[in-house]
Amino acid sequence: MVKMVLGGAQMGPIQKADSREAVVARMMELMRQAHAQGVEFLVYPELCLTTFFPRWYAEDISEFDHYFETEMPNAATQPLFDLARECGMGFTFGYAELTPDGHHYNTSVIVDRAGEIVLTYRKTHLPGHAEYDPERTHQHLEKRYFEPGDTGFGVVRSDGMVMGMAICNDRRWPETFRVLGLQGVELVTIGYNTPSQNSQSGDEGLEKRLYHSELSVTAGAYQNSTYVASIAKAGTEDGHHLMGGSILVDPDGFVIARATTEEDELITAEMDTERCAFGKSTVFNFAAHRRIEHYGLIASQTGAKAPE
Ligand code: CDV
After folding, report:
1. What distance in Å separates the CA atoms of residue 262 and residue 243, rounded to the nearest whole number?
2. Which atom of ligand 1 lies nearest, measured to the CA of 198?
3. Domain CN hydrolase spans what residues (predicted)?
4. Best label site of 57, 139, 149, 265, fewest CB within 10 Å?
């Protein structure tokens, strides 16, 4: 069982012109603030080394390879890893990954207090579309630039707690949380870049988007009796607005810390993994109550089929 201070490092906007070094310097400043406040594990957003480039169309996708990291850590991120080790702090962050054999993933890693990557996750649920779509108010081309992740939702016991990751759109799918819950997860980390407007519906704006995000995350926390850190990259990137709304959530589904800006902002809360045990051994004692004989469709069918 672990009692500690959990931190969420919301990032403000990153413009196309911003260098990796400038972004890492901002991440390090947030880490120093976190260390001063006693944080032992810090959660950064999805794709937090670059602008959210899937909003831009490139005819030849290799034009965007410069947004991808070919190794981790690398020259730009090593200072962050070094600082974390000095502070004795674990952390997680997201980035675009280009593997040695040419695969492109939307990836996040958990780094332990000794500075070692102990878990890699590649985003499963890629939203958006693969081709330029003139009908949309803006493009969301994750299906063009990334392949669906090949890792699945794994967990790791690191620095005394069971941790797992999801990335952005994954948080809207209960399957994500349940697969992690079935592995005894005690902290789910989620980074996101969520445009404040639905590109296909004018009436789904900021208020509804913030609500849906919080609804998904708090439900996932409660139904699996786990802490969740759901952390945004926020603000206006080259004219395109991303919502903020970063939150830390306890195993009862209550929000225990909330960002109030769309800038680089640290949020913190105390967590005690012992608090996960009650839900996991009572209402959500999976071994006692789940009825898997009735859940087959979840793993055998993707689309919904209504009766004639
Ligand atoms: N980066 C994302 O996965 N964004 C999606 C948007 C497109 C809805 C999200 O679920 O927040």
Report:
1. 7
2. 8
3. 4-273
4. 57
48 is catalytic: no
Q: How far apart are CA 249 and CA 25, in angstroms?
A: 27
Q: Token pair of 281, please?
A: 């051994």
Tell me the best of 194, 196, 231, 243 to mutate to test the pocket of ligand 1, counting ligand atoms within 8 Å of each CB and taking the most.
194
Quick check: 102 pLDDT over 90? yes
The stretch 284-289 carries a mean pLDDT of: 98
Render pLDDT for 165-181 as a digit per residue (tens, 0 to 9). 999 999 999 999 999 99
| Residue ranges of domains in the chain, CATH in brackets | 3-290 (3.60.110.10)
pTM equals: 0.98
pLDDT single digits (tens) 231-242: 999 999 999 999
Tally Cβ neighbours within 10 Å of residue 5: 15
- What are the beta bridge partners of residue 122? 107
Contact 45, 72 (CB under 8 A): no
